[in-house]
Amino acid sequence: MVAPPIPVAPRAENGAVDSSVRSVVWQQIRPGALAAVQGLAVALLSLTTNALLFALSVVSLALIPVFGIGFALFPAVTVLVRLSVGLQRRLSRWCALPIATPYRPMPADAQLGTWKRFRWVVGDPATWRDFAWLIPGAFTGGACLLGFVLVAYGLEGVLFVPLVLYLNVDWYGYGVFWPMDNIGKAWLAAPQGWLLLFGGLAVAPWLGWLHFRFAGFFLTPTRAQELALRVRHLAATRADTIDTQAAELRRIERDLHDGAQARLVALRMSIGLAEKLLADDPTAAQRLLTEAQEASGHALAELRDLVRGIYPPVLAERGLDGAVQALALAVPLPVDVDVRLPGSPPAAVESAAYFAVAEVLTNVTKHSGAGRAWIRLAHHDGSLTLVVGDDGRGGATPGAGTGLAGVRRRLAAFDGTMTVTSPPGGPTVVTMELPCELSSRRTSPSSGTG
């Protein structure tokens, strides 16, 4: 009797199914596990720094009558408080509850004297809101430790650690059994561990959310502070916009003077000389006219390039979606494009978005070492979102001279934002948002470009 063939294919299918199941399970527990680890970090930060900084603040205030020591000490302690609270503000992004920084800028004269620096710190309402939050924040931050403890304690039961210890240690307890006096109770540690594990995974995200939600009541800028921050932001972006426009005007003037204008002057001289030679030396005149024709072509090309740098004709002809697809086709690597724009942004926003995507794609080509890139454009909730990513080496930062700082300034002129995610090893994802409304509806469909 011949033996049946070995069922290789079903094993591969079962392996694929097992891998898929593990992936699904991990995707389900990943948020809770990440929140538990983040809760440990928040708890350590809150428990180790908040109480200490509160005590230092009280001592520095109490020392004000003592030879004025507090006048110098309190601003120094405030710097430490703001560093700690600033870190909490950055951690709040873990729970999608970002907390803005509300501090007033230091006046120029505050750097010159102890009293002026003290008066600046004391006169900032955010100083006292930070101070009021330190002790409550220590309690809510410490509560975030509960999620991590439940997960760790649950894993102890799931991995049968209580059973092993029961068999090797005279006295041990776990869960509801203290002590475990028989083997049955030791085995029951496993189901208890599963309950504790899933309970910790479920509660950890909520503990972090509650902590940062509570922190927002103290640390979020007041209405007056928000208006002041808004004015400062607008003043800064206005200054950047003016500087950018001035630099652009100088570039246009320089390009016209050194390029098209010089060629037009040479063209005029060639035509004038050809006119003088036309009667005496027709051959030389013909040669000069040919050179003038070539010069006029070069001048026209330079003028077209100059206009393209101001407002690309492809935007007027094909809109933002078509212009971005044209950019993708010009990049020497495969680029997937997904554009979902039911209408057209304002011309100024459209131009800013086009040049921003062009600059990021240039960075991808020059610096990333990527084999593939992608572009996503969409509009929702009154904001145009542009995402450019690549599978390159990562490590991109806006301040590393890669042109991303210029993109950020360009977007800031329209109250836009840019976020760069680029861990070492990649991928790099640049997310840009521009608040705007869409006008006339487009008919061109979304497409991919490879």
Automatic annotation (TrEMBL):
This is histidine kinase. InterPro entries: HATPase_C_sf, HATPase_dom, Put_sensor_dom, Sensor_HK_TwoCompSys, Sig_transdc_His_kin_sub3_dim/P. Its EC number is 2.7.13.3. Residues 348-438 form the Histidine kinase/HSP90-like ATPase domain. It catalyses: ATP + protein L-histidine = ADP + protein N-phospho-L-histidine. Keywords: ATP-binding, Kinase, Membrane, Nucleotide-binding, Phosphoprotein, Transferase, Transmembrane, Transmembrane helix, Two-component regulatory system. The chain crosses the membrane at residues 32-56, 62-83, 187-209.
